[in-house]
Structures are given as C-alpha cells and as structure tokens.
C-alpha cells in the first residue's frame, strides 16, 4: 500500500472516530433547535387541533419550540409523503392518522410510502368514535328500526359521506355488517353535508362525536349509535353498534405521532417518553375527555401494532365495497 493510500485510510478512520462521539452528543442534546410537526391537513379541523395541542405540550417538556406545519391535500397523503422523505434526525415529526396511514393503503396500493415500514410510530394520541345520526323526520329511533327500514326499502334510504373519511369507512363497514343497501351521496366537505342533513336533504351520516354534540343538544339531529366498542362519555345514553346486535363492531377516528424510519432510537425513545408525559397531564386529559375523545394506550409498540391492524381492517372493507380513489 502506498503512503498516500495509508494516509487516506487513516484520515477516514479518524473522521469516523470523530463522527461517533459527535452523533452521540447530538442525540444526547436533542432537541437543541426547533422541531417541526407536519399536520397533513388544513388548519381548523380535529387533526390540526390535536397537532397544535401536542406541539404546545412537547415544547414545554423538551424546552424547544415544536412548530406545526400544515401540508394538506389528497386526504393527508401529500403531507405524509413529505414526512416520510424528511431527514430522519428527530426534527420532523409527522401526525399519522386513520385516513393517511390506513384507509389510503386500501385505496391506492401504489402509495409512495408504506405506513408499516417507512415510519417509527411513537404513540397514539387520540381516539374518538363516529356517531350515527339521523334527521328527526326519519321514522326510526333505534339502530334495529333503521336496519329493518333499510331492508324493507333497499336503496331508498340515502346518507352523506366525504370520500374515504372515517365516517365513510364506518358507514361502509356498517352496511356490510348489517347486510343492508343504502344510497350514498358524496360531498367534498363536512360543511355542505351538515347543511344538507340539517335541512333533511339527506337522512343519515356518521359524524365525529365532538362535532355532533351541539346539534343533538338542539334536537336538530337524532343519535342512533356510536361506533366505539364502549359507550362514549358525551353520549352515555346512546348505545354502541356492538351492543345493538353487531358484536365487536368498531370504527374509530384516530391520530398519533410518528417520525421517519432511520431516526436514531435514543431520539425516538425521548419523544415517546415526552408524548406519554403529555398524555398523562390532567389538563390534557380533561380537555380531551370533555370533547368525547379517548386517550389510548401509550407507546410505540401498541401504536405500531394498531396501525398495522387498521390497514388490514380498512383495506378489506374498501375491497369488499369496491371503493376507488377519486
């Protein structure tokens, strides 16, 4: 070996040796600058509220600003794809959720990210049921009466949905489980759909439990059932679909926090611990539960397993219903 080659090799070894302690120091000092949280939806909705709540609490715990960046589009897919490709150094977190990390895989097998392998899922943040509501003019007051009516009048009962949202998936699963046929009316957003059900143009829809509350209190919507296995604290007198004859039925809206694969494990562990601390806060617990949200089991392992199970669940429902991407 020439002297020059020896020099190059020695220099490479020396550089590698210096890099190791520098990397370890960077991980130990994490975070030493602001951290970005990609929320893959526009401002104002439940996802944005959850993302900003996490940003506020993580900033307090880890003593650096956590800043929400809203990257909406394609039902959360655009922002999630951006997050999957981010530098895996702990300075980009991605808000994961049912639409972009479960339903999207059933709709498009050629997604540019894989929710099972392209992320480290840190912890689930929230879970909330969908509520099946009807316009008060409808003749049914219970889930059984609704099913009986739908079976006696196939296709004559209509419902609203926004494509591939959790409420859409809940309705498809319910129709398949109950063996009924109803006519779906697609909407581009929840606002126009709410206007139409309040006006009686459509008769049914699934809606997030927090959004429905004011209309139910005002008598403008009739609650028939909730889609969680347990009853919801906001609606203690409203039965679950599971207890109404369809045991085990569950269709939830949920979100969590993830980082790109390759993020150093010590940093992922630190974020996981900070999220667990956040969710144990009495203020966060009160804020969540007052809106009917449930704080799920915390931790990377249960959340990773949950994401995998949700992909399998909704892919099966989508394939059975023949739902295509828009």
Describe the structure in your own words.
The chain has 326 residues and is of the alpha/beta class. It has two domains: 32-128 and 253-321, D-Maltodextrin-Binding Protein, domain 2 (3-Layer(aba) Sandwich); 129-244, 3-Layer(aba) Sandwich (D-Maltodextrin-Binding Protein, domain 2), CATH 3.40.190.10. It has eleven helices and nine strands. Strands 1, 2, 3, 4, 7, 8 and 9 form a seven-stranded mixed sheet that branches. α6 links the parallel β5 and β6. It is globular and about 65 Å long. The model has no long low-confidence stretch (mean pLDDT 92).
Provide the helix percentage: 40-55%
Give me the number of helical elements.
11
The sequence of SSEs as H and E is: HEHEHEHEHEHEHEHEEHHH
* Mean pLDDT across residues: 92
At CATH level 2, the architecture of the largest domain is 3-Layer(aba) Sandwich
What name is given to the CATH topology of the largest domain? D-Maltodextrin-Binding Protein, domain 2
Q: Which stretches are low in confidence, meaning pLDDT under 50 for 5 or more residues running?
A: none
Number of strands: 9
């Amino acid at each position: 070996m020439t002297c020059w080659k020896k020099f190059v090799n020695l220099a490479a070894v020396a550089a590698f040796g210096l890099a190791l302690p520098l990397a370890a120091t960077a991980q130990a000092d994490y975070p030493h600058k602001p951290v970005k949280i990609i929320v893959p939806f526009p401002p104002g909705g439940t996802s944005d509220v959850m993302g900003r709540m996490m940003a506020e609490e993580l900033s307090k715990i880890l003593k650096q600003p956590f800043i929400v960046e809203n990257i909406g589009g394609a039902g959360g897919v655009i922002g999630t794809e951006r997050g999957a490709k981010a530098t895996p150094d702990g300075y980009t977190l991605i808000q994961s959720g049912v639409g972009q990390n479960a339903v999207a895989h059933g709709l498009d097998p050629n997604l540019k990210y894989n929710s099972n392998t392209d992320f480290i899922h840190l912890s689930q943040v929230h879970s909330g049921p969908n509520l099946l509501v009807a316009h008060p003019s409808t003749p049914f007051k219970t889930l059984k009466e609704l099913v009986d009516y739908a079976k006696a009048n196939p296709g004559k009962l209509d419902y609203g949905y926004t494509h591939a949202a959790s409420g859409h998936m809940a309705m498809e699963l319910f129709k398949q489980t109950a063996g009924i046929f109803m006519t779906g009316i697609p909407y581009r957003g929840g606002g126009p759909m709410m206007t139409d059900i309040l006006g009686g143009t459509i008769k049914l829809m699934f809606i997030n439990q927090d959004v429905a509350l004011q209309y139910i209190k005002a008598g403008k919507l009739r609650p028939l059932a909730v889609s969680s296995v347990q009853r919801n604290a906001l609606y203690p007198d409203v039965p679950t679909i599971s207890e109404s004859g369809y045991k085990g039925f569950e269709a939830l809206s949920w979100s969590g926090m993830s980082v790109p694969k390759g993020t150093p494990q010590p940093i992922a562990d630190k974020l996981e611990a900070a999220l667990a601390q956040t969710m144990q806060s009495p203020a966060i617990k009160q804020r969540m539960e007052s809106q009917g949200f449930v704080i799920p089991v915390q931790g990377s392992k249960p959340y990773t397993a949950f994401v995998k199970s949700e992909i399998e669940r909704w892919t099966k429902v989508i394939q059975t219903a023949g739902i295509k991407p828009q």
